[in-house]
Amino acid sequence: MSKLPNCPKCSSEYTYEDGPLLICPECAHEWDPAAEMANGEDSRVIKDSNGNILSDGDTVSVIKDLKVKGTSSVIKIGTKAKNIRLIDGDHDIECKLEGFGAMKLKSEFVKKI
């Protein structure tokens, strides 16, 4: 027999299944464990080079000179990117840089301001 998780509201160990839901008889809390798992997988945490959690709208600064692929220009250390947007992919930050326009950056090369 598989062990059911404790109630997230009151931590009671006497939970039981009722169809797709789990129910706690002590506090009458009902929850869907499949929906909680799906929500946990969708929320990917993106951190900067110092380990700070980034979110949409943050301002970040570049921590090293970055060569721009396909050109001879360089994004200098300390360049600020305001109002960033987090996206999926290898380059997980989308932003606008002064003098360069729209760019995608890797979070490992920025720090939160």
Tell me briefly what this model is.
It comes from Mesobacillus jeotgali. This protein has 113 residues and is mainly beta.
Q: Which overall shape is indicated by the principal axes computed on the Cα atoms?
A: rod-shaped
Q: What's the overall average pLDDT, rounded? A: 88
Estimate what percentage of residues fall within beta strands.
25-35%
User: Number of DSSP helices?
Assistant: 1
Secondary structure: number of strands: 10
Question: Would you kindly provide a written description of the structure presented here, covering whatever features stand out?
Answer:
The chain contains one helix and ten strands, in the order βββαβββββββ. The chain is mainly beta. The strands form three sheets. Strands 9-8-7-4-10 form a five-stranded antiparallel β-sheet, with no helix packed on it. The protein has a three-stranded antiparallel β-sheet with strand order 1-2-3. Strand 8 (93-97) and strand 9 form a beta hairpin. The protein is rod-shaped and about 65 Å long. The N and C termini lie far apart (51 Å). It holds the Pfam family YjdM. This is Zinc ribbon domain-containing protein YjdM. Residues 4-32 form the Protein YjdM N-terminal domain. It comes from Mesobacillus jeotgali. Belongs to the YjdM family.
